[in-house]
Design a protein that fits this description.
The chain is of the alpha+beta class and 447 residues long. The chain is built from 17 helices and 9 strands. The chain folds into 3 domains: 121 residues, no CATH class; 158 residues, Glutaredoxin (3-Layer(aba) Sandwich); 87 residues, Ubiquitin-like (UB roll). It has a 5-stranded mixed β-sheet with strand order 6-5-9-7-8. A 4-stranded mixed β-sheet has the order 2-1-3-4, sandwiched between helices. A hairpin with a 2-residue loop joins strand 7 and strand 8. One of its GO terms (biological process) is ERAD pathway. One of its GO terms (molecular function) is ubiquitin binding. This is UBX-domain-containing protein.
Length: 447
């Protein structure tokens, strides 16, 4: 983006720090807001959160770490003023003044880019590189002051902000300057004190610490506008937005540190508990609404399932009815065809021969209803003529569409080769036959 390319490195760091603290994603809006307050991070953030400025939170200078270095330099300079009154002292001061200024400038630059320069000078430390800023602080504290301290948060500052937002907690931020003269006293008599540890535990604070010499620690330092060390900040939330609630700068007795933090904590914890109660109510309402919606969806699902089964049942019955109707129509059509066929058979049968005309076969045929018919056929008639004769008769109780088979029972023999003559089948001069039913299903099974 063009407007991002026009920013200086320092402005980019302030922009990133503001976004980490506020969670604002609109880059153009954020840049315009910072420009409005001349890139003063603290003023901009307070205006962003509440629309008003708290003068007590405005840093005395925009060059945070540099101011601290210059303040220490001025303190050292005032100590040496008495020596400067002497001519030799003035000469020494004149000689070493450029050197001191150069060293101050170099120290200031190193503070701006501590990690990069340290890597170039000392070489990479792969084990230390894997540690977060908070873990490095814990390692530093325990190696120098022991393991008695509050439970320090090990993640990033941004992760700590998210955790206290989700869990409705407060965050105590400790920005450490290892080179500062008051650091040992602060770590031993404040952070490692029973009073401070108990205060943190009783109020369930999250405690994050970092060194101003670390990249992340330096960015957090910019967020708080810390100018004096040691530094303690209290972060809370209002409507899910992080706010800087209190800052304690410089070495103070532990009782004073606790008192300052506790005053702001008590003021904001009431509102935080109210927000927590509202959130619980919203969550409860959401759960109830979700359960109601789930019950409604389940009811709809059951209704749809019932309607689907009813529709499938109706369609099944409709298909069965249509199939039965088609079968009935087909059956009736075949019955009519069979009746016409019987009439044609009766009309096309050759007349019964006389005994003196030719050699005959006198057959006694028993029909399905128990009646018996005796009829003569020519010996050279094919078995088909006998079948035609039988099928031209009424075969009750057989179904009209039933297929028939002519059999001899003693011994049992079926006569099914309709192209054979009666003489060839051994039915001359006489024989007894029985008409048996053979339905279509039996024929399909045999096939």
């Amino acid at each position: 983006m063009e407007y991002l390319d026009s920013l200086t490195d320092n402005q980019k760091e302030i922009l990133e720090s503001f976004q980490n603290l506020s969670g604002e994603d609109d880059l153009e809006k954020t840049i315009k807001l910072l420009q409005r307050f001349n890139w003063d991070l603290e003023k901009t953030y307070q205006y962003y959160v509440g629309g008003e400025l708290n003068e007590s939170y405005i840093p005395t200078s925009s060059n945070n770490v540099g101011n601290n270095a210059r303040r220490n330099s001025r303190r050292q300079q005032s100590t040496n003023n008495n020596n400067n009154d002497h001519p030799i002292g003035k000469l020494i001061e004149l000689i070493f003044s450029p050197v001191r200024v150069a060293l101050s400038i170099i120290k200031y630059i190193l503070n701006l880019f501590p990690d990069s320069f340290r890597k170039l000078i000392e070489g990479p430390d792969s084990k230390n590189e894997r540690l977060t800023c908070a873990e490095k602080f814990i390692q530093y504290f325990e190696s120098n002051y022991g393991e008695k301290h509050p439970e320090f948060y090990k993640g990033t500052y941004k992760q700590a902000l998210l955790d206290i937002r989700d869990n409705y907690q407060f965050l105590i931020v400790i920005i450490n300057s290892p080179e500062h003269d008051d650091t040992p006293d602060f770590c031993k008599n404040v952070l490692a004190s029973d009073a401070f540890i108990n205060f943190v535990n009783e109020n369930n604070f999250v405690v994050w610490g970092g060194s101003v010499n670390d990249t992340e620690g330096y960015k957090v330092n910019n967020v708080f506008g810390a100018t004096t060390y040691p530094f303690i900040g209290l972060v809370g939330h209002q409507r899910k937005r992080a706010i800087i609630a209190e800052k304690v700068e410089g070495l103070c007795p532990v009782e004073e540190v606790i008192d300052k933090i506790n005053q702001k904590y008590q003021q904001l914890s009431v509102q935080l508990q109210a927000e927590k109660a509202e959130e619980r109510e919203r969550e409860l309402s959401r759960i109830i609404r979700q359960e109601q919606e789930s019950a409604y969806e389940e009811s709809l699902r059951k209704d749809r399932e019932r309607e689907r089964k009813e529709k499938e049942e109706r369609e099944r019955k409709q298909r069965e009815e249509e199939l039965a109707k088609q079968k009935q129509l087909e059956y009736e059509r075949k019955v009519e065809e069979k009746k016409l066929y019987k009439q044609k058979l009766a009309a096309s049968l050759p007349p019964e021969p006389n005994d003196d005309e030719c050699e005959t076969a006198q057959l006694s045929i028993r029909f399905p209803d128990g009646s018996r018919v005796i009829r003569s056929f020519r010996a050279d008639d094919k078995l088909q003529v006998v079948y035609d004769f039988v099928e031209s008769k009424d075969l009750d109780p057989f179904d009209i569409l039933s297929e028939i088979t002519l059999v001899n029972t003693f011994p049992r023999k079926e006569y099914i080769d309709k192209d054979q003559t009666l003489e060839a089948l051994g039915l001359c001069p006489n024989a007894s036959l029985i008409v048996e039913e053979k339905d279509e299903e039996d024929e399909e099974d045999e096939e």
